[in-house]
Each structure stands twice: as C-alpha cells, then as structure tokens.
Known about the structure:
2 domains, six-stranded antiparallel beta sheet, 38% helix
Amino acid sequence: MKSLRIPLAMLMFALAPLAWAQPSAPLTANVEQQMSADEFKAAGLDKLSAQELAALNAWLQHKVVQETTKAVEVAKEEGRKEVKEINRGFFDFGSSEAIESALVGEFNGFAKGRKYTLENGQVWEQIEPASLDGVRRTNPKVSIKPGMFNNWFMRIDGYNTAAKVRRIK
C-alpha cells in the first residue's frame, strides 16, 4: 500500500478542482467514473481491490463535502461582514464603533436639513437643530458615533458640538 501514496496524492490534487467547481453539490461519481481508463491505470488505482476502491471513494466524497462546507461558511461570513460594513448607519446595522471619515467640500456649520457627503460615499442628513456658527472648513475630518435608540451624532474635528444625523445613502 506504500507504493500507492504518491498516486493517491496525485489523485486528490486532480480531483480538487471538481470540488470547487460545484460547491453546492457533493462529488457524486466514483473516482473510476471521473477518470478515463488510462488515467485510472496510470494512477495505479486498477491495483486496488473493490473494498479499497470503495474506501477511497468514500474518503474522497467526505473530504470534498468537508472542504466545500468550510469554504461556504468562510464565504458566508465574509458576505455578512461586507453587508454590515456597507450598511453601517442604517438603523442598527454594523458595529457600535464610530465612523471616521472626512466631509467632501466646504463645511459652513451645522443646520437642520443639511446633507453631508463623506469621502467614503455615505450621505448623512442633519435631523435636529444644532449650531456651529462661523465655521468655514474645507474637507474637515468628522466622527459619527452611534447613540441610543439608533441615533447618530456627527462631530467636526476640533469642535465639541455634535449634530444628530441619519444616514440617507
């Protein structure tokens, strides 16, 4: 059986693309059906007994299902993280950490109803009165922190005044 280690390893690598090509369906065909007769013989698999061949097929199917399941779980988790990050600020999506960015263009103080576009593409609207009169800054850094009950508060770097905002885009 020692002489079959290399052909079995080669077989495993040869079948790996089949596992990734159809991640939602387990490998249903046996190894002898996946390979041509010449490939089967070249890999030395024709020397296996029926019992050994059945054990190899069972192991390969288990391995493919296991690897596929693992890959699907990793992809799902990455997708969840991406959705949370993209939707931060809408309702209670994402983490409770502050959003750090900069405003695009001129900032001329706070006023209810104003819309603020961030460098990261998010657009926020001020929903309650807060004033920061006489401030003229270009592309200032901002911090938007979540509060209680899905409220978010924007602060301009260097000022203590916070304006209640909601994400609109």
